[in-house]
Amino acid sequence: MATDLIKGVVRLCLNLQDPEHVARFQKLCGVRGTFPRKSARTEESESEPSPNGACVKQRTEESTDDGSVDEKPSDLRQRKDRSSETSKQEECSNGLLNGAAMPEEQNTLSESSSKADSERGGSKGIVKPLRKNSLTGDVGQEFIIENKFLFYLFTFGTELGNEMFFIVFFPFLMWNVDAYVSRQIIVVWVLVLFIGQSTKDLVRWTRPASPPVVKVEVFYNSEYSMPSTHAMTGTALPFSLFMLTYGRWQYPFLFGLGLAVCWSFLVCISRIYMGMHSVLEVITGFLYSVLILAVFQPLLDSIDQYYLAGSYASLVIVLVHVGLGLLAFSLDTWSTSRGDTAQALSTGAGAALASHLNHQLGLQPDPSLDLLPLVMPVMDAALLGRALARLLVGVPVLLATRAAMKTLTIPLACRVFGVPADDVRHARQHAAVELSYRYLVYGTVAFSCVFLVPLLFDYLSLS
């Protein structure tokens, strides 16, 4: 009986991992790829498509980045789809990423695209991914959007898990809502991203195959995909926010729960729409996040109190966050997922150190317990104007800090560790450079968000 159950679960997982489900959902939502029909001669001459949609020739010798970190021979086979853009172009001379047309078929593809374009009312129906691949520089292939409302909706949903959202979301909570909640939300975000990204590097599943999947997004296409960390953060943040604020703030239970459910659902579905994850990977990300919340949510207040008032809090914060970063960088060869892990850990460290300093100096104290539950203020023009003014002043300061630190840190790290700085992408594939860059840049940004920018608000009478 148990064996039959296990076999049934395995069959279900294999079925949910099938990229055809992703392709069918994309078609249902009005996404059409521009995959050409291949002739017999082309099929013989072209490279085989990899699970990530990249083309690799059938040969025994595989190309890798010269700047990769501790590349082991056993990793080469697993990482063959993650070589640099130059290597991919050399190996895929008969084709492009994401199932692009072969040279002899360009006329056929252009005619079919033009016909589809005219049927849909102009060139605005044919688009390309908004951002190029962060590791290889690949810009992706054109695809056809038939339902622009869903395209913009799911683009917004996937941006809820990207850097620019977090650089606005966390400061907004810190400056305008509740610093206590913001501190603990950052702890949740760091834990979820570290565990999720590290799991990716251990499981090492590639992205859904293309074709049949259309890569609406290619920014993370070189990363592993199991589980979906977008689904994890898109579940952990709204539900943790709901659990931390309900009872502390007065608002309807169904409103908070409904907002969390809609947020999570939108992010999870958007990853399938973008062609970045299978159904199984998104479901696993959701359930994995729920498990992490169940374990760590009861501990958040204790962690926060120790970070604020612990005698050795500063030392513990640095050791834990840097140690986890070093551990993450030892799991696999360099990838954007490891960089994102270090970025989250450095942000958490900077925010925790700044919060500890605020507590020691008596700055920005939390409301006393006898004032709870807090009453939602009336949303008048003065309140909204002050909140908007904080964002308009504070966020540009953070962006300027990030830009300045990026400009200074990478050349400095390259000089210190003896790494050529002429190719930044290759330079950052050295663990010492990448870790230094992430911790110095994003640790400083987070420290500024929690400690320096509120002082600026005091000076400008925006507190």
From the structure above, extract its key features.
463 residues, mainly alpha, three-stranded antiparallel sheet, two-stranded antiparallel ribbon, 18 helices, 7 strands, globular
How would you classify the helix and strand content by structural class? mainly alpha
Mean pLDDT: 80
**Number of strand segments:** 7
> For the terminal residues, how far apart are their CA atoms?
64 Å
Helical residues, percent: 55-70%
Quaternary structure classification: single chain
- Unreliable stretches (pLDDT < 50, length at least 5) are 39-124
Strand content: under 5%
Strand order of the largest sheet: 1-5-4
What is the tally of helical segments?
18
Radius of gyration: 24 Å
- The secondary-structure element order is HHEHEEHHHEEHHHHEHHHHHEHHH
Could you describe the largest sheet, including whether it forms a barrel? Answer: 3 strands, antiparallel
CA-based shape: globular
